[in-house]
Design goal:
The complex is a heterodimer of chains A (about 290) and B (about 260).
Chain A: H1 2-26, H2 36-53, H3 57-81, H4 86-106, E1 116-117, H5 125-144, H6 146-156, H7 158-162, H8 168-194, E2 196-197, H9 204-217, H10 223-238, H11 246-260, H12 271-286
Antiparallel strand pairs in A: 1-2
Chain B: E1 2-11, E2 14-24, E3 29-33, H1 40-47, E4 55-60, E5 63-64, H2 70-75, E6 78-80, H3 93-98, H4 109-114, H5 117-136, H6 152-164, E7 170-174, H7 182-199, E8 202-206, H8 210-216, E9 219-224, E10 227-232, H9 234-238, H10 241-248
Parallel strand pairs in B: 3-8, 3-9, 6-7, 7-8
Antiparallel strand pairs in B: 1-2, 1-4, 4-5, 9-10
Classes of the chains: A mainly alpha (about 290), B alpha/beta (about 260).
């Protein structure tokens, strides 16, 4: 029970971060291979706050997210303002992610590459599910508001969006900051679940996993990436019986999703719509 | 009033537009014609801020808008459509128009993120207003359809509806009749005239279909190699030697 509980908790934590990237990639159409940096910032900011300063967990969680937002402006303002083409932006943020990791490795307060141990455990399964639910609500509300409309317009056609009076830089920056917030909160949850963090946890591999969950889960969807995030955390665990083949199967699953559902599990749709559709069908059959 | 004064734009060594001046008055439908590559679309891109002019001034209602960012130009009351239609293809027809109202809503980011009820209320009102624009161009029955699945003629209409929803004072139409059959062109002509009447709009129209442009534009500017070749009423231009040469070649009399 404890084992399944842990896997689920980790899955939900990952889902919070993936939600962030879904906002940036799935709804604003910008790719990133550096979002692990925001998870790292959130993890360290919150852990330092609870570890050294005994700040209440909920406050540390929010401040972890806000810490990532601040950092997102450091990379976002120069690159997005310069209208960097999307592929160059990916390279820039990738380098930025590595730079953040190196900084974390060389600060005193983070205890460098040794990592920060002895963090209090606050991220239990109910807490994590609650935070995930709140984050889903926030993301959903953002998407259906005018701010979300702008982001979606930029994803669909930046030139047409501009001629609708949409400020491309402001829109992309807002999405990046929002995604950094969710990643930061995810990182804060992670730190208070593992009780130990070190900079090497927040590398490119982590960034790539976020992208995999968003793309496999579906562009333009919130529920798809969340489901995929949990699934991708659980899958290697479920496959432990297959031992050395499990990473091969992991890759295979990813390929199969892209072949049979090119726009991802829930591309441009939500789980709630499925529920509504089913309800409608049942009603029709009933009458 | 839209006023271009001595506008110049070069790409590398090529002068796409050089020393071009023109005026468009409120409530006017001005035609902009010229052979391919004459610089017509470049002119639209200069007016809307996609390109910065290298020289000269562009003013709209007395304000210099040359080199202003596109989203600021839109705020000044200028909207446009594109030569190759640019819709938000994956969104519904209604959502395409809805986006035009993003600056007209009053709620701020905190209430949006928290999903407060006032956000939903305001969004609903906007949807009602967006529907009126769809009705205007006759797309009300397609509101829930995905924009990318619309046939060509209807896509054009949607693009016009979306531009109108910005409530502009000036609308720039870039070859709206391109790729349309004669029947669709008649419909389009009616639509443009109706829009012009209803909204008392200033319209600048780029078009290759002479029948269309000659019948709805009282005044036409002819562009060739980035400079103004001629300007006048359709009748004047039909007898203008320079214009005939540009379109038909030096030997047009023998052709």
């Amino acid at each position: 029970m404890g084992y399944i509980n842990s896997v689920l908790t980790l899955g939900c934590i990952q889902a919070v971060s993936v939600l962030g990237l879904a906002l940036f990639t799935g709804f604003t159409g910008q790719f990133s291979l550096g979002h692990a940096a925001f998870i790292g910032i959130g993890a360290y900011v919150s852990a330092i706050l609870t570890f050294y300063y005994h700040v209440p967990f909920i406050l540390a969680l929010i401040l972890g997210g806000l810490g990532s937002v601040v950092v997102s402006f450091i990379i976002g303002v120069p690159t997005l303002k310069a209208k960097l083409r999307s592929d160059y932006f990916v390279i820039a943020i990738m380098g930025f992610g590595e730079a953040v990791r190196v900084v974390l490795e060389n600060l005193n307060i983070t205890q460098g590459a040794r990592g920060l141990a002895g963090i209090e455990k606050y991220s239990t399964l109910p807490v994590v599910i609650l935070v995930l639910a709140v984050c889903c609500w926030l993301a959903r509300s953002f998407i259906v508001s005018r701010y979300g409309w702008r982001a979606i317009a930029v994803r669909e056609d930046p030139i047409a969006a501009e001629m609708m009076g949409i400020n491309l830089f402001a829109t992309k920056m807002l999405s990046l900051a929002g995604s950094a917030f969710f990643c930061g909160v995810g990182g804060a949850l992670l730190a208070h679940f593992l009780m130990y963090i070190q900079p090497v946890m927040f590398t490119q591999v982590q960034s790539t996993q976020l992208v995999a969950a968003v793309v496999a889960g579906g562009i333009g969807s919130i529920s798809g990436p969340v489901i995929m995030a949990i699934f991708f955390i659980a899958l290697p665990e479920m496959l432990r019986i297959a031992n050395m083949w499990r990473l091969v199967i992991y890759g295979l699953v990813l390929i199969l999703i892209m072949v049979f559902r090119p726009s991802g599990l829930m591309g441009y749709h939500e789980l709630t719509e499925l529920g509504k559709g089913l309800f409608r069908r049942l009603k029709k059959e009933g009458s | 009033m839209l006023e271009l004064n001595n506008v110049t734009k070069t790409f590398g060594g090529i002068k796409a537009v050089s020393g071009f001046s023109m005026k468009a008055h409120p409530g006017e439908i001005l035609g902009l014609i010229g052979p391919n590559g004459a610089g017509k679309t470049t002119m639209f891109n200069l007016i809307t801020g996609v390109y910065k002019p290298d020289g000269g001034t562009i003013s709209f209602d007395g304000e210099n808008i040359g080199g202003m960012a596109p989203h600021h130009v839109v705020e000044k009351g200028i909207a446009r459509t594109f030569q190759n239609i640019r819709l938000f293809n994956k969104l519904t027809v209604l959502d395409n128009v809805k986006i035009a109202f993003h600056n007209k809503l009053h709620y701020q980011l905190p209430s949006a993120v928290l999903g407060l009820p006032l956000v939903g209320r305001q969004n609903k009102e906007i949807i009602k207003e967006a529907m009126t624009y769809l009705e205007l161009v006759g797309l009300q029955d397609h509101a829930k359809r995905v924009a990318g699945s619309l046939p060509y003629g209807l896509s054009r209409r949607l693009e016009i509806a979306r531009a109108l929803a910005l409530k502009p004072k000036l609308i720039l139409l870039d070859e709206p009749a391109a790729g349309m059959n004669p029947e669709e062109i008649v419909d389009l002509k009616e639509l443009i005239c109706m829009v012009h009447r209803e909204f008392a709009l200033m319209i600048v129209l780029i078009e290759h279909r002479m029948d269309l442009i000659m019948s709805i534009c009282p005044r036409i500017v002819v562009l060739n190699f980035g400079t103004k070749l001629a300007e006048g009423t359709p009748e004047e231009l039909q007898n203008n030697e320079e214009v005939l040469k540009a379109y038909l070649g030096e030997d047009y009399k023998n052709a």
